[in-house]
Inverse folding.
């Protein structure tokens, strides 16, 4: 018996578990589950996911992006000092000798590391991959510790706001294409925020901390955020009030023009740069036909340290159109911005490559689409099987195996029952349940006559076809349907 | 200055690095790289990978498999005692509070955990995903610490050898389809191996250790394996010699029949079961038309603990056909077997679900295909862009942006230069370099006449097309090419 003081957390849990186990329950071994905050994706979920990812990737390719893949873990130092207050959420690997490693927290930092390491000065790439964050798992809100991100980024020195406008166009194309209901993209600029902090009198050492507070305005009221600034972050109340006057503003391009006239902000060089870029951005967005989807929102701050210019975040404005669906709070579904200083952090000489990009939060989109399909009772086929090879007779396994090999070799998606003597009804039921459209049936009579019966599962019609013509006939039927 | 005794590996490396740095070299900060034994995949590599994975997945779908995804990490206890001597290669996550986690070592154990956790008794699934092993990275041989596996498994209680035969058929279809040259699939059965060990006089406590030695016969001579058995694992020399008589045998179905007649082996119940199943397997493989690709090889042992019946491994017989290519030692490219006891290890009541499956070692296949493409100087397009929007004039950015948005909205893959005033020659060169087939050109004259010039990059022919007809004309051209 170990001393109580030496019991670590796990041992306590075991003891506690034994105490709480109801009398009579015998537990030979524990049920293994996946780890907290992660999940398995069932075949149904995989089908939904595959459709959404296909749609996202085809949009990225439409905009000329190349694919790129990076390892799941990076050197720990690569991730250090990139994520501000969120750095505590990084998963570290155990030191088992060798390098100190961490699971990637996003796809942006590995991309910047790749650019610096390979001295790439210009690249438009997409990356679909998992990232890991040690968040408190609140799965009801679609927050996981392992989740998939779809990123598109443009690296390179270009004329201002052209790549930035394309990123917003891509977000619009994807969100419209997925038919998630109405959406809005909030836009702001880190330089405008810094300008506001400066003209309001925030000490420069507090810019990051105050920026983090502003970032909470999508979840907290201004009153609570103001309280945090004053009580927790030691800001003078009158400075907080001045900030409040700004960060509660949002509007279209007219707000940009209004801010240009603002007596205090127009004195700040950084803010003017940001406002100038936003004005240009709105011009391009108008040419792209998406300006009405964009809102200049001074409360948008984005949590991550590495942004240096324009930032944006797409939010769904309402739950999908139909009133009978349960409302689902999904918040932001895509976000991004400009990070001109990140690549330089990885380059031995500090050479920078300006970058702008976006990330689609597909997990939230999965939840919405899944919920919608449940509401409408949509049935999803989890296999693509086209033909089932069946028999009404006993001892026909050999014939079935020969026949199905012919189908597979012709590229036809086919299944059979892994039994020597299955019942015909069981075989036909399986086809109906799985949505398999065609059945080929071989029995004694067919063998004698040198034919195969081809049955349509939907109409239950059967026709006899010679063995030589079977593959061609199946291919014809499949191409028609 | 820390005491020398307190310096850990990293600090030593820094000191050592400073000593070795050539005079005059100034290093402001380190070049960040990916971690040892992992790699980034460049856009070229991604194109090759995507083609290979598409081909593998379409084969899995042809055989009726559903998709499934599991998290990158599992509870540490889920992976414990599954991998025999290789358990030391598992990556653990740092204990940051909460559960003890490990990165998955393969896709098989998470699949078995999924089946038990969800009480699934029958399932045919595929899974393409990364796995992680702390191997000594010998990248020259295509061995990485992070690599992709493509798994197909059939779970359920069925009549013997039908799913097993389908697994071998799938391996043949994939290896033939990828045109990797000639290949052979070695087949054996764990029960036959155990039978051999028993009749040769190996104590049962040494079965696993001796099986691990036999497993090395693909890399070591019998002499060296025998030495390991006798000197390191304490086996009597005459027992080792008896084993040697068996494990050096390989052949077709005739060897199965010969083993049935073997005076010692035919006395062992387990071996007889294995031989009976192999006989049946060969029958089915003949019906599938692949028997000549299969070799009954008594030296095949497979490293993993969880196999309980038939096991198999596909090896390439020669480097790709052409003599001018450098030879590449790739060893086994696919493997698998039957594991009837694994699911029960995760079920609270120990209920088992028999399983059989296979895993395609795609990293090695990537190396071969990449090598082949290099040898033949094949050029790979890394983007799918169909149309480039160009201008010969200054101040035409607005028109270009309007035009490209029209193309994107019509689903056409299009790019433009992110510059206000790019040179026409630069724009056309880019199209040639990137293999973009079409260019639309808009300038003053076109704007005045209400037309767009459509240029074929290959033929350099240009025609004027009215703006209204542009999308339709582009779609027509693309569908013809």
């Amino acid at each position: 018996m170990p001393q109580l003081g030496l019991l670590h957390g796990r041992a306590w849990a075991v003891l506690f578990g034994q105490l709480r186990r109801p009398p009579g329950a015998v537990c030979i071994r524990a049920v293994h589950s996946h780890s907290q905050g992660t999940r398995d994706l069932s075949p149904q979920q995989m089908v939904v996911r595959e459709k959404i990812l296909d749609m996202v990737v085809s949009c990225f390719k439409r905009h000329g992006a190349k694919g790129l893949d990076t390892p799941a873990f990076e050197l720990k130092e690569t991730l250090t000092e990139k994520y501000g207050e969120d750095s505590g959420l990084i998963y570290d690997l155990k030191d088992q000798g060798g390098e100190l490693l961490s699971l990637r927290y996003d796809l942006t930092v590995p991309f910047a590391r790749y650019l610096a390491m390979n001295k790439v000065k210009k690249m438009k790439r997409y990356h679909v991959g998992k990232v890991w964050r040690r968040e408190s798992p609140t799965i009801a809100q679609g927050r996981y510790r392992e989740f998939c991100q779809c990123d598109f980024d443009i690296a390179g020195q270009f004329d201002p706001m052209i790549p930035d406008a394309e990123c917003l166009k891509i977000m619009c194309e994807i969100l419209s294409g997925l038919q998630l209901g109405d959406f809005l993209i909030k836009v702001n600029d880190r330089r405008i925020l810094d300008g506001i902090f400066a003209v309001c009198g925030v000490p420069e050492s507090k810019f990051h901390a105050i920026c983090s507070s502003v970032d909470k305005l999508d979840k907290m009221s201004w009153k609570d955020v103001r309280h945090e600034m004053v009580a927790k972050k030691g800001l003078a109340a009158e400075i907080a009030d001045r900030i409040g006057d700004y960060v509660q503003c949002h509007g279209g391009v007219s707000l940009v023009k209004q801010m240009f006239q603002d007596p205090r902000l127009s004195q700040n060089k950084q803010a003017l740069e940001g406002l100038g870029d936003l004005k240009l951005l709105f011009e391009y967005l108008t040419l792209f036909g998406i300006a009405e989807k964009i809102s200049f929102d001074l409360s948008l701050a984005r949590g991550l340290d590495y942004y240096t210019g324009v930032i944006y975040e797409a939010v769904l404005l309402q739950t999908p159109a139909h009133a009978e669906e349960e409302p689902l709070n999904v918040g932001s579904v895509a976000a991004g911005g400009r990070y001109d200083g990140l690549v330089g952090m990885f380059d031995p000489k500090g050479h920078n490559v300006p970058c702008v990009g976006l990330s689609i939060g597909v997990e939230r989109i999965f939840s919405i689409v899944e919920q919608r399909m449940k509401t409408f009772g949509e049935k999803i086929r989890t296999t693509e099987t086209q033909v089932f090879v069946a028999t009404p007779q006993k001892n026909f396994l050999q014939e079935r195996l020969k026949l199905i090999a012919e189908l597979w070799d012709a590229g036809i998606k086919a299944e059979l029952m892994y039994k020597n003597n299955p019942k015909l009804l069981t075989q036909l039921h399986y086809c109906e349940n799985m949505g398999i459209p065609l059945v080929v049936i071989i029995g004694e009579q067919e063998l004698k006559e040198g034919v195969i019966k081809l049955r349509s599962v939907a109409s239950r019609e059967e026709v006899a076809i010679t063995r030589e013509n079977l593959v061609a006939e199946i291919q014809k039927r499949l191409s028609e349907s």
